[in-house]
Specification:
Elements lengths: L18 H11 L4 H8 L8 H20 L3 H5 L3 H4 L6 H8 L34 H16 L8 H38 L1 H109 L1
Length: 305
């Protein structure tokens, strides 16, 4: 964060000088008063009494003034109430010093010349011949223009200002038709804003849009609920089909097991029958062989006879 900028002009405090007197001299360097100076500092100074400013400076103005002027905080504290108590001067001398008008010429720290009589406007510049109203005006505007980057005409400031005012007047005159047109459009728009019929029409349009959005949301909700019920029914149907298929699978597995058992029994019976047939064949072959042997014996006997 960038801190407060340094004032280009800030006369050094005089020994024994109060805050009030010093701030008035700084304000005089810029041709202003304590009001604008206080706004730049962040304090209200215009309607404060001298002693109030000197006391308030100890509570918040020290750091700000140190950043604006470069004067050390210790030096500034010596200018406040704590700096002169208990050796502060007589109040009449202090008030006389604080009320002494400084020279209005920018950068001058000398006091203005005293008035010969108590009537009329008091002098605003010191006894320097070069510090007068015209020179002060030029110096203040030159300082302001240097800060803003403008190049002033010091010889004929009134003519230069009149010329610039004429140019601005021509620019304003050129912009006048456009401004009138814009102002007319602006007034028409304000009339529409303040028209109760337009407001009622907008309310009806907004309510219609809201009703349409509500109807659409209701329809979506209804479709979602129907889809949910249909999905639930399909899920129940699928569960039932799965249960039925599982039961059928169990039945088929039981039937398959029974068939396998029957096939096993049949295979065992077939093996037994096969074994019996083998035994019968063997017995028949043995009997056949015996019969052949007997037949051969009989033939032999018959041939010997």
């Amino acid at each position: 964060m960038i801190g407060p900028r340094r004032w280009p002009l800030h006369p050094a405090p005089i020994d024994g000088e109060t805050f009030y007197s010093w701030l008035r001299r700084i304000a005089a360097c810029y041709g202003t008063d304590l009001t604008l100076l206080g706004e730049d500092l962040g304090f209200t100074l215009r309607w404060s009494a001298p002693e109030d400013i000197d006391v308030a400076a100890m509570s918040g103005m020290i750091d700000v003034l140190a950043e604006r002027t470069g004067v050390t905080p210790d030096r500034l504290r010596q200018m406040g109430m704590a700096g002169w108590v208990p050796w502060r001067r007589d109040k009449s001398e202090e008030v006389q010093q604080s009320e002494q008008r400084p020279c209005r010429f920018p950068g001058c720290v000398r006091p203005a010349v005293s008035a010969d009589s108590g009537t009329g406007r008091p002098p605003e510049y010191c006894d320097n011949d070069g510090h007068n109203r015209a020179a002060g005006w030029r110096a203040r505007h030159r300082l302001a223009d240097e800060l803003s980057g403008n190049a002033p005409d010091e010889k004929r400031p009134v003519d230069a200002a009149r010329q610039r005012a004429g140019e601005l007047c021509d620019q304003v005159a050129g912009m006048a038709p456009h401004l009138v047109q814009q102002l007319t459009a602006f007034i028409d728009e304000l009339r529409i804003v303040a028209d109760p019929d337009a407001a009622e029409a907008q309310i009806e349009a907004v309510m219609a849009e809201a009703a349409a959005h509500i109807a659409a949301a209701t329809a979506r909700t209804s479709r979602a609920e129907h889809a949910g019920r249909q999905a639930e029914a399909e899920r129940l149907e699928a569960d039932a089909a799965a249960c039925e298929a599982s039961a059928r699978a169990e039945q088929q597995q039981a039937a398959l097991a029974a068939t396998r058992h029957e096939l096993g029994d049949q295979a065992q019976a077939l093996d037994q029958v096969t074994a019996e047939l083998v035994a019968v064949r063997a017995a028949a072959e043995a009997q056949n062989a015996q019969a052949l042997a007997q037949l051969a014996t009989i033939r032999t006997r018959l041939g010997g006879c």
